[in-house]
Amino acid sequence: MASGTTITDVTTTFLSIPLERPLVTAAFPIPAIDTALVQVRTADGHEGVAWSFAFGRGRVASLVRLIDDLGELAVGADAVATEALWARLSKAVEFAGRRGLAAAAISTIDTACWDITGQAAGLPVHRLLGGFRDRVETYASQGLWLDRGRDDLAAEAQSLVGQGFRAVKMRAGLPDPAEDVARVRAVREAIGPDVALMVDANQAWDLKQTLRMARDLAEFDLFWLEEPMPHGHVDDYAAAAPAIEMPLCTGESNYYADELLALARRRAADYVMPDLMRMGGVTEWMKAARMCEVFGLRVTPHLFMEHSAHLAGAAPNAVWQEYQPWWQPILETPVQVVDGCIALGDEPGFGLRLSASAVAEYRL
Ligand SMILES: [Mg+2]
User: Which Pfam families does the UniProt record give (predicted)?
Assistant: First the structure.
């Protein structure tokens, strides 16, 4: 008979969470956040919550199916034995391919199990994993998309600063590089010299364009230039990092710690941006962060602030949690930003409470 933290069921719910305004990046437009919500329950009544997403309903339907499949394998396992469960799930997807949606499926279950582990220990996850800090600086990433005109951009940037953010991220990667530069100038002038500014090109450029743009953007004191080139072009990142003046950030599109190791060994980035759902959940995210620490590299979590801010709280080399409120509508306990920081709080696990009515409303 199941007892203690034995997993008794894994439920996956397909949600489509609408956006007020579609997002426009150099990679693709995004009308809604189609999400696979995962709830893992144990015999002693704990419930761990995590989610992942993909762009396109067919792809999320595949993700839901994969999580259901791996969820069947997880039933009967001990939720707090996260390494054992991770090894079991990773082995199960080996033949189909460990990266892509399989990584996201493993990640959701693993992350939900860390939620349970924290609850069972009576500790918030950021303290369970090391407790380096209980407030994490956050940068506004919810605006400044490519479809805004310069005046719109300037007004939006000022509004974000007015909400208390001390750092903002804008997108670049338009067909006309002069327009990219003019837009960065408009935002820098709008926010003044004291607010940190990140620019994300979403893999739009090649090496030569990156070097040229870094030169043209040098006067705007960027905190980092993010993912300027295709994420797999490690040689190009290794060439660009020492050649440009501003810090270089990449890693959000890479899978598992081994792909980040390839960047770290080549010193191909100044900031490494592990994504919780591409890393394989908390278990592998923390390994990636520790590995980067050994290389003297800082990590900055990609998305998933509700979970990842705890990991940034635990890892000494973590900086700047990305603030992206896409999943705030499904929570009764929205993330609070105080003085530009996310306060992590003391509730056991990740301290998340789902809004049952919102989940019902957005369910497909
Ligand atoms: Mg990015």
Answer: MR_MLE_C, MR_MLE_N
CB-based contact 160:187 (threshold 8 Å): no
| 120 alpha carbon – ligand 1 mean position (Å) | 34
Divide the 364 residues of the chain into consecutive groups of 10 and give the mean pLDDT of each group: 89 94 75 95 98 93 98 98 98 96 98 98 98 98 93 97 97 97 98 98 98 98 98 98 98 98 97 98 98 98 98 98 97 93 96 97 96
Cα(171) to centroid(ligand 1), Å? 8
Ligand 1 centroid to residue 357 C-alpha, Å: 31
Domains delineated in the chain: 7-123+356-362 (3.30.390.10), 126-343 (3.20.20.120)
What's this model's pTM, rounded to 2 decimal places? 0.97
CB count in 10 Å sphere of residue 1: 4
Distance 268 CA to ligand 1 centre (A): 16
CA of 146 to the centre of ligand 1 (A): 13
What spacing in Å lies between the alpha carbon of 119 and ligand 1's midpoint? 32
Spacing, Cα 200 to ligand 1 middle (Å): 5
SS3 271: strand
User: What tokens does 63 get?
Assistant: 């993700």
- Which residues touch 264 (CB under 8 Å, ≥6 apart)? 272, 291, 292, 295, 297
Distance 173 CA to ligand 1 centre (A): 12
The CB-based long-range contact list for 250-255 (8 Å cut-off, 24+ gap) reads: 250/226, 251/275, 251/299, 251/302, 252/227, 252/278, 252/302, 252/303, 253/203, 253/227, 253/278, 254/278, 255/98, 255/99, 255/100, 255/103, 255/279, 255/280
**Four-residue CA torsion sign, 266, 270, 272, 273:** negative
